[in-house]
Amino acid sequence: MMRSLVLFALGLSKVAYAAVIDQELDEGIPDTGLDTGPWTAGQVPPIAQMITANDFQIAAKNSMRARDYAYFRTGVLDEITYINNLNIWKKIRLNGFSFSDVSDVNLATTILGYEFSAPFFFAPAASAGRAHPDAEASIIRAAGNAGILYVPSISSTLDIEEKAAAAVDGQIMFHQQYIWSNDTRLRDELARIEAGGFRALFLTVDNTGVVGVRSRYERFSNSGNSAHSSSFTIEALNHLRTLTDLPIVPKGLKTAHDIKLCAELGFPAVYLSNHGGRQVDGVPTAVEILLDLHLQYPEVFDQIEIYTDGGVRRGTHIMALLALGVRAVGMGRPPIFANVFGEAGVTRLINILRQEMITEMMNMGQADVNHWFGNTTFINTRQIELEYFGAPLSVPTSSTPFIHPSPPGGSGSASNVTAKRGTMYMAMD
Ligand SMILES: Cc1cc2nc3c(=O)[nH]c(=O)nc-3n(C[C@H](O)[C@H](O)[C@H](O)COP(=O)(O)O)c2cc1C
C-alpha cells in the first residue's frame, strides 16, 4: 500500500498513469500486499499477481470501464449488507484438530445429485460480457474443465443456446430464471433452457418488479422496473412448477421462515441469498440466517439441500458455511471479475479457491469435504449469536472433536448431521 502511494506520488510529477487502488478503503476488502502502483489504468495487470479472489476485483477495477465495474461492484443503498457479507467471516472462529491423517484430501461432492469436483459454484450474474468479449463462455469453459457447477443468469450477455453450445463434454450446468411478468417470454425461455440440456433451475424470487436502488451504479444509469413479476405469490410459484419438468430451486430466500415454507412445498433445495447485497439494504448475512434456521427449524437441514452465497472470497468462508449445514456455496462477483482475464482468469480463481480449501482442511485435521456438512464442531459462531440473537444458541462444546463414523459410500450422511446438531444447537429459554 505504502509503496503504491509513493509510486503514485512520484508518477504525478510525470504522467499519472499508475492505478492506485486502496483495497481496504476503496473496496472494503483486506489488504494482502497487492501492489497496484506499477499497473497501467485501463489495462489488465499480469495474471501472475492474482493470488487471492479479491485480487481479481482490483484487476477489474483497474481495467474495466468505470460504469461496468460499478455495475458489478454495486450494492443497494448504503451497501451495509454488501459490506456485512464481506466482514461476517471476521466474527467466526474455526476449530482445527490435530492428530488426523490428512494425506489424501477430497473436495468432490454432489450438488442436487450431480457430481462436482468441489462444493462451491459460480452463481448467476448478469452481463458477463462487460468484463470480456467471450462473456459467459469463458466462465462456462473454465467451470466445465474443472468440474465446477456454473449457473448462468437469464440476463446473460450470451443467449441460452450460445451458453449451451459453449459447454465442454459432459458438463453439467443449471440455469437461472426470473419470473417475468410476460408469461409468453417465461414459457419460451423455460422450454429453451430445457432444450439446452440445463439440469435444474435456480428461480430467483428476491427481485420482484423492481431492482434495488443501487446508488453506486445509478451514477451511470437509472434503476427501476425489472420486468419481473411483482405478484409472485405461492399460487404463482405452484403454477410455474407446472410449466417445466426441471427441478426448481428458489433463489434469494432471506428468512428461516421462507426456507421452511419451501421445504414444506416440496422443493428439493433452496438458495439462501441476499443477492450479494444488491436488493434490500440491512437484510442479514447468510451466516445469520443459517443460525436462525438452526434455532427455529433445524429439521430442514435433513429434508432439503441448502445453497447459499454472499461475500464468499476464501476457502475458509466456504468451509464455515458447509459446517453450518450448507451443501454448496456460490460466488457471484469473483468469477465475473476474474473474467477480465477470460478463461485463464476464471481457471486461476478456481485453482486458488481449491488450494485454499485443501490447505486449510489439512491444517484443520479433516481430509474429506463430505464430513464438513453440518459438522459444527469445526465452527464457533458465538460472537455472531450474541450480536444477532442477544444470547448464545449453543452449549459450550464447540471445541470437542466429532468422531465421524465411516459414511456409507464415502460421503457424509444426514443422520450424522442430525446427531451433531442436536447437541450443538440448543435454544436458550
Ligand atoms: C453483477 C451481478 C449481477 C447479478 N445478476 C444476477 C442475476 O441475473 N440473477 C440472479 O439470480 N442473481 C444475480 N446476482 C446475484 C448473484 O447470483 C449472487 O447472489 C451474489 O452475487 C452473491 O454475492 P457475491 O457477489 O458477494 O458472491 C448478480 C450479482 C452481481 C454482482
UniProtKB/TrEMBL annotation:
SUPFAM superfamilies: FMN-linked oxidoreductases. One of its GO terms (molecular function) is oxidoreductase activity. Pfam families: FMN_dh (PF01070). Its cofactor is FMN. Gene3D superfamilies: Aldolase class I (3.20.20.70). Residues 1-18 form the signal peptide. Residues 45-382 form the FMN hydroxy acid dehydrogenase domain. Keywords: Oxidoreductase, Signal. PROSITE patterns: FMN_HYDROXY_ACID_DH_1, FMN_HYDROXY_ACID_DH_2. Transmembrane segments: none annotated. This is FMN hydroxy acid dehydrogenase domain-containing protein. It comes from Monosporascus ibericus.
